[in-house]
Design goal:
Jelly Rolls; 4-stranded antiparallel sheet
């Protein structure tokens, strides 16, 4: 049997913390800027281990990143480093 949990949402227009405790990222909506960039999710803050990197193209059209199963586990904290992009992260 699967255990369900509440899903929270955090929108970021600049690099920053998604959640300050252990969590699972379950989905992301990325809005690229006019130039190519990237979204890097790290475990443990700005200097933490890179868990997921998504490179964006320079078109400005939002797209979804669906994460299967129970999502990606961030054991310490979830942090997003954004370059020419903004994000909405679904976690819980």
């Amino acid at each position: 049997m699967t255990m369900l949990s509440d899903v929270n949402v955090k929108s970021l227009a600049a690099s920053g913390s998604i959640n300050g405790t252990r969590t699972r990222v379950k989905g992301i909506v990325i809005t690229p800027a006019a130039t190519a960039g990237s979204v890097v999710l790290k475990d443990g803050g700005a200097g933490g281990a890179t868990v997921l990197t998504i490179v964006t193209v320079a078109n400005g059209q939002s797209f979804n990143v669906l994460i299967p199963g129970n999502g990606v586990l961030f054991s310490i904290t979830a942090y997003a480093t954004l370059v020419n992009a903004s994000v909405t992260v679904f976690y819980g």
